[in-house]
Structures are given as C-alpha cells and as structure tokens.
Amino acid sequence: MSSRLNPYISFTDNARQAMEFYKDVLGGTLTLSTFGEFGDKDGPGADLIMHGMLETPAGFTLMGADTPPGMEHNPGTNIAVSLSGDDADELRGYWAKLTDGGAVAVPLEKQMWGDEFGMCTDKFGIGWMVNIGAQQG
User: Fold this and answer.
1) Domain extents for the chain?
2) 36-71 per-position pLDDT tens digit
3) What is the pLDDT of residue 134?
4) What is the helix (H) or strand (E) element at residue 42, kind and residue range?
5) Which residue from 6, 19, 8 is spatially nearest to 60, judged by alpha carbons?
6) Considering the entire predicted model, what is its pTM?
7) Average pLDDT over residues 90-99
8) Can you tell me the distance from the alpha carbon of 118 to that of 89, in angstroms, rounded to the nearest whole number?
9) CB count, 10 Å around CB of 25?
10) Superfamily of domain 78-137 in the CATH hierarchy
C-alpha cells in the first residue's frame, strides 16, 4: 500500500452516528473499532469509536473517532490530517519534518493495535496523525 493522506474528524460520543451518516451520503465501506475492543471491554466509553474509516467508490477516504476520555474536544478545530501506510521510512521522514518546530502530543511508537502511531501539531498549528501499518509476516 502506498501512503495515504486524508481528513480525520474528532467527535464527542457520536462518531458512530456521524460516520454512518457520511456512509449514507457518500456510499462505500465503513469499518468501526471501539475502545472496548482494544482495552477494558466493560469500562466507561467502551462502546465509543476508537477508529472509523469510510472508503468510497469515488476514492474518498474519511476517518473519524470519538474523543478519548481526558482529551479536550474543540469544535471548529476538531479535524486533523492523517498520513498512513506501510512505507515506514517514508512516513518516519514525514513525521520528522512535521514535528520540526511543532509539538508532539503522542510520540510515534508502537501502539496497542500493533501499528506505530503518533500525533503532533506542526509549526503552523495544524494537527497531524501518522500511522505506520504493522508488517505482516
């Protein structure tokens, strides 16, 4: 898979409804994963969306998730740009450049779902997420 760039929208406890709405609008295939699938299945917010991805026949990709507990949700600034793929060297290079003069919110490192993931804000105040897919093998 080559690298992909797409919007990533943060919601407050209604990501499932929003992503299902966008699927109705744009068509395509929607996949949703909950916080409970990767953590405490009975904990607060376990049924909220940790990651959702809509891929449409027109080639659009839209990602979204509920804001995790403890993180601030700011309507109007709740969209980030997502870079993802499996070319680790390319994506780490983008990460290094994006974080130069910016601020790292989540270090680029292996996460509970197996991929390397990081979040940062670049020097212009734009939020970025970088996800390097786990190598299959």
Assistant:
1) 8-66, 78-137
2) 998 778 887 889 999 999 998 878 899 999 987 777
3) 84
4) none
5) 6
6) 0.70
7) 92
8) 14
9) 11
10) 2,3-Dihydroxybiphenyl 1,2-Dioxygenase, domain 1 (3.10.180.10)
